[in-house]
Amino acid sequence: MPLSTDPSSGHSASTYKRVMLKISGEALMGDQGYGLHPPTVQRIAEEVKTVHDMGVEICMVIGGGNIFRGLSGSAQGMERTTADYMGMLATVMNALAMQSALEELGVFTRVISAIPMDQVCEPYIRRRAVRHLEKKRVCIFAAGTGNPYFTTDTAATLRANEMSCEAIFKGTKVDGVYDKDPEKFADAVRYDTVSYDDVLIKRLGVMDASAIALARDNNLPIIVFSLDEPGGFRGILAGEGTYTRVSG
User: Fold this and answer.
1) Handedness of CA 54, 24, 61, 97 (dihedral sign)
2) Which of 77, 147, 166, 181 has the smallest set of CB atoms within 10 Å of its CB?
3) What is the DSSP string of 157-220?
4) Which residues contact 214 (CB under 8 A, 6 or more apart)?
5) CB-hemisphere CA count at 13 Å for 69?
6) pLDDT per position as a tens digit, 85-110
7) How far is CA 194 from the centre of its chain?
């Protein structure tokens, strides 16, 4: 989408009014093999602030794989439901870290959890979350959907639909969707656009199948871009940079 310039504010104004940013927990690790890397969290927060300064209302969902991944826990013999709940709690920790980094930059932020824990964040109430967005607060949705067997990809798609977001921005380590893993195959080809059905049929690994089907059923486009590229999030909103658009 192209940008228009608002001369009164000095900022560019995006034609997207409300978006969902989905990032993995691993994106917060930096070069570490586990946990949170504060400089990386700060860099991502600065990226979010540049888009927020354009007047865009921002929702976020952050995975928990840098702390605990439910699927890997269940693979090691833990009960799947328990492992998934532990993964949900990991996403709350990541959301609180991102909230702290954003508020240090002067961006008002609310962490909203699908699992009530009133001492540290708000419970999910759709109308309240919409009001936060209207007041230009960043809303970070934590604890997935609140149910086991659903990934944070599905949670991001669900919340994006509930919040009437115009697109999901999926930040990854690569600059789009490829026909095969570009880190393993030098001849991998990047798609500029790809359909929901092709993502499912070819198993392109953009998001899990439930998330793709939910986005398809509600005609919600998914923009896949590299989170490691400085200014990438803002650049995509300007119609610049390299990315893949998943749509109908």
Assistant:
1) negative
2) 77
3) HHHHHHTT-S-EEEEESSSSEESS-TTT-TT--EESEEEHHHHHHTT--SS-HHHHHHHHHTT-
4) 154, 157, 158, 161, 220
5) 11
6) 999 999 999 999 999 999 999 999 99
7) 19
Contact 105/53 with Cβ under 8 angstroms? no
Asked if 203 and 243 count as a contact pair (C-beta separation under 8 A), the reply is no
DSSP readout, 173-184?
SSSSEESS-TTT
Residue 185 and residue 202: Cα distance in Å, rounded? 17
Domains in the chain and their CATH numbers? 3-247 (3.40.1160.10)
Place of tokens 């669900």: 158
- 166-203 pLDDT, tens per residue? 999 999 988 999 998 888 898 999 999 999 999 999 99
Render pLDDT for 143-168 as a digit per residue (tens, 0 to 9): 999 999 999 999 999 999 999 999 99
CA distance linking residue 188 with residue 191, whole number of Å: 10
Whole-model pTM? Answer: 0.91
Closest CA to 170 of 78, 120, 243: 243
Q: 74 burial class (0-12, 13-18, 19+ CB within 10 angstroms)?
A: middle
